Amino acid sequence: MEKNKRLSPFEQGEISALNQSGCKISEIVRQIGRDYGTVKNYIDLGENYGKKNPGGRPPKLTPRDKRRILNEASNQIVSCAQIASRLQLPVSRSTIGRVLNNSPHIEYEKMKGKPPLTSTHKANRLEWARKHMTWSKEWDSIVFSDEKKWNLDGPDGFHSYWHDIRKEKIVFSKRQSGGGSVMIWAAFGSKGRSNVAFIKGTMDSTGYTKMLQEHLLKFGAKMGGRKWIFQQDNASIHSSRFTKDYFLQKKIRVLDWPSKSPDLNPIENFWGILVREVYKNGKQYDNVNQLKTAISTAWVKVEKATLQKLVDSMPNRIFQVISEAGGSTKY
Fold this sequence. Notes:
One of its GO terms (biological process) is DNA transposition. By secondary structure, the protein is of the alpha+beta class. It has two domains: 9-110, no CATH class; 119-156 and 175-323, Nucleotidyltransferase, domain 5, CATH 3.30.420.
């Protein structure tokens, strides 16, 4: 476990994302691979982390400052960092969070629900987990993939948000108008990543296999080694007869995958790192080309060590599925 080395920007992003999602410091330490003191120091210092002379302790908030913070969280969906930025308060995210936590009217709520799991889903997940529970270095050969939509005006939703319990809960619906979007496909493994594939329109099995021909076959060995195995979810175009015939023709080995299991795919955490970078400080985009450039830039900036850490999380994901009898994990 590394000590005394400064956290990279993406490590800082990982810690912030995990901290805001409610993970304990001990769990963040395990996932990030850094010592307890380094992680706690970053969380405590927030935006002052890494500054040689931050000027002592952050100035104390006045009663008026605290009222402004509570009012900001009460009236809109914001993160602690956004509150500090909008109100121009020279304090850390954790300080903002403590003010909100101390309020009897504000609570931190999960907003993104996980896919509902039936008894059949749970049984299949449990069977799959038991089948792979002895895997360790085998995961280094897996190429994990997924599609993701990106919006010009920000992500589809925060994982959690501050909610004033005196008010009705906000109903988050799909956008009715305004704001373009970009759909991408990408993959990564312990040894590297693919290029980002930008998807135009609705994709069918033919389009999917053409995309794999260009973006998977060129990078498969670079991502998972000579004996790489491809992972995908069970979307219809992924599991169609046409796509299965393509895999047979190209001799691509495909990992069996349980339905309703995004929590088992570490690329979901990769997306989380990218979202924080692409939409940093509430960033929005004027056009699709700007957004594409930001996504591509963020994708290649993620350090290779982070890729390995994400892959190394697989045994723990499987352990959690078994512990939950096939139920959802915290990932």
